[in-house]
Sequence to fold (411 residues):
Amino acid sequence: MSEGETPATDFSVPQMDESKSLQERIAILEERNAQLLEEMRRGEGEKRYLQSEIIRMQKEIQRLRFELERMKAPPLIIGTIKDIFGDGRVVVKSTTGPDFIVNLAEYVTKESLVVGSRVALNKQTLSVMGVLPSSIDPLVSGGELIEKPDVSYDDIGGLAAQIREIRESVEDPLLRPEVYKKVGIDPPKGVLLVGPPGTGKTLLAKAVAHQTNATFIRFVGSELVQKYIGEGARLVRELFDMAREKSPSIVFIDEIDSVGAKRLEIATSGDREVQRTLMQLLAEMDGFNPLGNVKLIGATNRPDILDDALLRPGRFDRIITIGKPDAEARVEILKIHMKRMSFSPDIRVRVVAGKCDGCSGADIRAICTESGMFAIRDGRDRVIEADFDQAIEKVLKDHIASTKAAGHMFA
Ligand code: ATP
Fold:
């Protein structure tokens, strides 16, 4: 074989086999690569999910730690700031007894405190831990607040004379103060409604509030009598603060005899607390502008035991007496309560009213409800006169039973 000549070997078949197998391997490797890429993507997705889970869990741990800390924190005492010294210390009064001079917690600024603020005190050191919002929330302390009651004068039966009186002494000063100014007299500061239970005293006060678009704030006198010294007086102060804030408003104090009973020479510490509450009430009334936007209405069924100081001119100087309704008034009250009822047209309202002798407005309402119950029991959808007869008998019987029970109790 001459130089430069390539050997005549035939490599073509093995070369083809090799390239084929290489291509196959490449294909397998590419497939594998695609699989691995897919797995990697899945793994990354899982990693991201786990990372977010870790963050969520860490937050949960933090929340639970915080909750645990909160649970372990000792309770704080509520106190009132009485004085603020220049050096940053304050005098606090708490329900634990005497007044204390204490420090402020680091995060409580002196500027956020004023004399009279409600504050939270550390149980051991009594230092001020925080300033609380003022507590004028009657719902918390057992009062009732209605922005505009939906009771109108038309819902009151048989009290025309009383409605006229209350309009003159409460409605006119609120809606037309110029009339009083022109004549040059002061309207009554407070009106006292006197009458047996269930005769419509609350109803009358609500109707005036409705007519004058005033906020109706109702408090029962006994709720103003509190356990701790000074608490009742504070409640009265807050009640009037709120009334001024929500003015025009009508403050209605039901059962005023429980705070306004005659003061006695010999008094227990409980009596003295009631007296303090009464003094605060009198002070608030004295500070009132008779032509202002806040009106006070009291209600009682024991006017005989009220302290004279409450009744003197400039305080409850208008007394409106409400008696048990007479026959004519009972007809009116019955008609009011029958308005919403479905009844047979042959009911003789006067006869029914005649049988309700001695009943109050609340009793008549109860009689209407009972008569409806008797009709339902009989499978009827309208009330007939016989239902009223049964209802009157039932309500009067219950009445006698409860009066007797009360008699036993106080005998
Ligand atoms: P208490 O002294 O027990 O608080 P009250 O005199 O304030 O009683 P209200 O609460 O005004 O009595 O009346 C109770 C219910 O009796 C009223 O919701 C009303 O349905 C009915 N009622 C009382 N008097 C009248 C009346 N004159 N006209 C219509 N309904 C009346």
Notes: Confidence is low (pLDDT under 50) at residues 406-411. Residues 156-159, 197-203, 254, 299, 301, 333, 336, 361-362, 365 surround adenosine-5'-triphosphate (CB under 6 Å). The chain has three domains: 46-133, 140-321, 327-409. The longest helix spans residues 12-72.
